[in-house]
Amino acid sequence: MVKTGVIFLFFVLASVGFGRAQALYNDCSTALEICPNTVVSLNNIGANSTFCPGCEDDFNFCFTAQNTVWFTFKTNATGGDVTVNFNNLNFVLNPNQDTEIQALILEASVPCNSASYIQVSNCVSNGASPFSLNALGLAPNTSYYIVVNGDQTGPGITTAAECSFDLYLTGAGVDRPTPTIGVTPSSIAICLNDIVSFEALLTDCPNASTYNWFINSELVAVTDINVFSTSELIDGDILTVSTNCFTDCSVLVTTDSPSIDVYSFMVDAGADQSSTPGAAVTLNGITSAPTHHWEPSFLFSNPLVLNALVFPEETTTITLTATENGCTLSDHITVTISKELFIPTMFSPNGDGVNERWLIEGIEEYPNNSIHIYDRWGQEVFQSRSYSTTKAWDGTVKSGVVTEGVFFYVLELNDSKNKQYKGSITVIR
User: Which residues contact 291 (CB under 8 A, 6 or more apart)?
Assistant: First the structure.
C-alpha cells in the first residue's frame, strides 16, 4: 500500500490577501524539488530576479526575467518525454499589475549559470489560464529546471504579475514503478510467548530506508534490515511495517498483517509464599491444560498434582508448566525461607581451631544489618555493617586480642520490622 496525496506548500504571507512574502524557491540555488505525479501548490508572490552577466536570471528565451521562481526535477533511469501542467492560476489583482505568467523548462550543464542553459520545452510567455510545458526525449538521470516568471508588458503595466498555481509533473521521463511492501508470514497462529520473525518484502523500491515496525499502531522497533523478531504478541495484535523508497522524492510504503492468532490458556502457580526451613508449604496451582507438572521435581512426591506439599530448606523458585493444543506455558512462585537467627553466647578464640569466631546463624538473611560490641566499661571493641560469617568477630581489637570476660552486643537487622537484639557474649581463652 502506498500513501500519496496532494501536497500543498503554503508560505506565511505578510499581510491580508496574498501579501508580499517572498517564496522560498525564489533563487535557482534553492530550487524546489518537484516529485512526479503529485500536485503541488506554488506561487511567485514577492519573488524578484537576480540579473547580472551569467547569473541565474540572465536569459531571454521568450521572456525576460522579472520575478522568477525555480523548481527542479530529475528524470528516471530511461528518460523520455515530460509534461508540466499549470492549473488553478489565481493572480494578484492590483492596479497596473500584469495578469500573465511565463514559464519554460531548462537544462543547465552548470547549475544556475545562465551561460549553460538550454531550452528543452516550449516557452509560454502569456499564461493567463491553464497551460502545459512539454519536453521531449529528455536524457536519463538528469536534473532539469522549471522557471516561472511574472510578465510585465503592455500599456500602463508597471508591476510584474504575481500568481499562485498548481503544478503537476508527469510523463515517461519521470514516471516510476509504484513500490509495494508485504510481510511474511502473512497469516500465523502461534503460542503465547513464542518468538516470531517477520520479513518485509519490497517490490520496485530502490534505496529503502530503515524499517519501522508497529504493533497495534505503536512503534516497537526500527531496524536497518527487513527482519523483525518479537515474543510480545497477544491474540488479535496487528503488525505494521513501513519504509521509504527512493532517495529523491521518497515514497512511504506500508502494510498491515491480518489479526494474529495467539493461543493461550490459564496457568497460575499461585502467590509467592514465606516459610521456615523444612516447614510444609502448600501449593495450589491452577490450569485448564490437561498436562502439567511442577519443577524442580525432586521437591515433590508427585509433581503432576496441582495441589501439593513441599518442604523447601532454602528460598526456592518453583515452576508450574502446562501444555495444551501443542502450546506450553509456565508460571512461577517463589517460596522465601526465613532462617531463624541463632546468636551464640560464647566463643573461644584460643587458636585450637574450634569455635574461633562469633558466628551468628541466619545473619545472611539480613544483609543490611549492623552490629556493635562493647566491653564492660562501655568501650566499643568491634563494629560492622553487613555482618556475616566472613566478617565475624574473632575476639580482637585494634590493639590486639581482648581478655577473657563478658562483652555486650547490639544487633540491628535494619529490616522492614527494624528488629533489634541485645545481649552478652563470653570470650573464653
Answer: 322, 323, 324
